[in-house]
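Lab meeting, item 3. Inverse folding demo.
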């Protein structure tokens, strides 16, 4: 049903664009015949207005990967630097939540580990929506922030790092066999808001996949049983994502970018002082409005990253449309 709905939306969207184009072409011809320049100008403006929607739909044709249509998990981890990096990790979590809201996607918080003074040490959210994984998959990597620290009494400039990890939710048609001997399951007391029960019982669950070293955790529910089931789903998704990456030639570069949360591994820089600039170091895309980016205006960066993953022909076509 989900695939059918997606196909219907795409077909109806293309048919709607074609009809709008034809209607406006007919209006131009009528305006020229009647010598009414206002009709011609209005129709020409309407056609120009179709360009953005056409570009968006063409870009969505790039979201044809095996798991691109799936919902996705998004993890944020603070790097070294204490409160500074933990505050930056919290800003990133807000940025992606805002981006999802803009696109009409739903966000569920699965676990959050608060920092000692401010921000977060780590967090995991579930983003539900059409092509959620396809849009977000190129956001995995280290993100660097340069700003005047609000936590420094001397108002000095600080550089902070945080990492983002994206992996798809897998459905029941994909079987991931994980021997129980390969995992270690720990329970612990949840942190943060959630009421007396959450904070006084060992309801949170952490699962460690010993062969790969992958660790997932969930503290969303009051029930340890529900958290355990969610954590198992997250682990299967992580292992599935690893397999997807092994099949892609770009996997090595993406994986290398996650090896260390620090200098030399960042995919994007966010500079708030001494000037204002957000720059993607992989594609060269820039924005001089960091606040807009931090409020979720990420589409330009995602479009460029997606285009860079396809072959030269497709990339040039998208560039021409843009």
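The presenter then showed the designed sequence:
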């Amino acid at each position: 049903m989900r695939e059918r709905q997606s196909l219907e939306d795409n077909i109806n969207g293309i048919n709607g664009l074609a009809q709008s184009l034809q209607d406006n072409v007919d209006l131009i011809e009528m305006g020229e015949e009647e010598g009414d320049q206002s009709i011609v100008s209005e129709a020409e403006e309407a056609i120009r207005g179709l360009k953005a929607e056409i570009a968006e739909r063409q870009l969505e044709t790039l979201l044809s990967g095996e798991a691109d249509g799936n919902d996705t998990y998004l993890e944020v981890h603070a790097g070294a630097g204490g409160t500074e990096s933990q505050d930056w990790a919290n800003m990133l979590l807000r940025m992606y939540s805002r981006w999802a809201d803009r696109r009409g996607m739903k966000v569920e918080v699965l676990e959050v580990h608060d920092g000692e003074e401010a921000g977060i040490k780590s967090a995991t959210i579930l983003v539900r929506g059409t092509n959620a994984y396809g849009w977000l998959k190129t956001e995995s990597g280290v993100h660097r922030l340069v700003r005047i620290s609000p936590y420094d009494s001397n108002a000095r400039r600080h550089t902070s790092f945080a990492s983002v990890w994206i992996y798809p939710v897998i459905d029941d048609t994909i079987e991931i066999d994980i021997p129980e001997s390969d995992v270690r399951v720990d329970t612990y007391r949840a942190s943060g808001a959630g009421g007396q029960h959450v904070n006084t019982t060992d309801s949170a669950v952490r699962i460690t996949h010993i062969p790969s070293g992958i660790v997932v955790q969930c503290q969303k529910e009051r029930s340890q049983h529900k958290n355990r089931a969610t954590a198992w789903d997250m682990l299967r998704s992580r292992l599935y994502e690893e397999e997807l990456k092994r099949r892609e030639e770009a996997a090595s570069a993406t994986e290398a970018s996650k090896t260390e949360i620090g200098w030399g591994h960042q995919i994007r820089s966010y500079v708030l002082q001494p000037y204002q600039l957000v720059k993607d170091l992989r594609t060269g895309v820039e924005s001089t409005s960091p606040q807009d980016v931090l409020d979720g205006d990420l589409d330009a960066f995602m479009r460029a990253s997606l285009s860079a993953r396809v072959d030269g022909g497709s990339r040039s076509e998208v560039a021409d449309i843009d």
